[in-house]
Amino acid sequence: PDSDGFDLARKIRDVHGGAGVPVIAVSGSGMLTRAQAAGFATVLVKPVEPSRLIACVSAVFPRLAATSALAENLRLLVVEGEPLQQKLARVHYAQLGFDVTVVATGAEALRDARSTPPDVILSNALMPELDGYELCLELAADPALSGIPVVLVSAYYDSDLDLELARRMGASALLPRTESPERIAAVLVEAARRGARPPITEPRAEL
Fold it and tell me: Is 194 helix (H, G, I), strand (E, B) or coil?
C-alpha cells in the first residue's frame, strides 16, 4: 500500500551492497514492459506453484554446495502426509543432492523400504495410524530394514524429553519441523554415514 515492487527494487539497489541482490517479481497480470522487467532477476505470473518459486529462487541463490556434495545421491525416503509439504520436500532435498522418494503414510514407507531400501528416512514424528515412533519400531523388527537410520521431525518438539523418547524408539535424531532443509539435510547425511541406529530401549507394550 505504501509503495510498489518497482520502488522497492530501486530502494534495494540504493542500499550499500544491494546492487547485487536478485529480486524476483510476482505479478498478477504478467504485462510488465521490457524496461520494467529488466529490474528483476525473474518475473513470475500468479498463481505461482511453490515448486516453481523454489526453482526460480534456486537459479539465482547459490545452493549449499558442501551439503549437496555430501548427499551424493543418497536414497532419501520422506514420510509426509500434507500435499504441499510433499512437493516442497521433493524439491528441497533433490536440490540438496538426495535421490528423493516421498510417501504419505508410515505404512507406505514400510512397503517402499521393503521394495527399495533407502539410505535414510525422514519422517514426521506424529501421524495418523502408523506414526514416526511406531515406524522406527516396525523397521527395527525387520532384519532387512533394521539398519536404516530414521530422522524424525515434529511441530511439537518441546524439550529434551522428546529427544530422549525418540532415541529410545530407535530414531537417529529428532528435530523441530521449523529447522531449515539445509540443517535437516546435514543431519540426514550424518545419520546415513553413521549407519547404525540407537538400540530400542522402550518395550513395545509401554507405548
Answer: helix
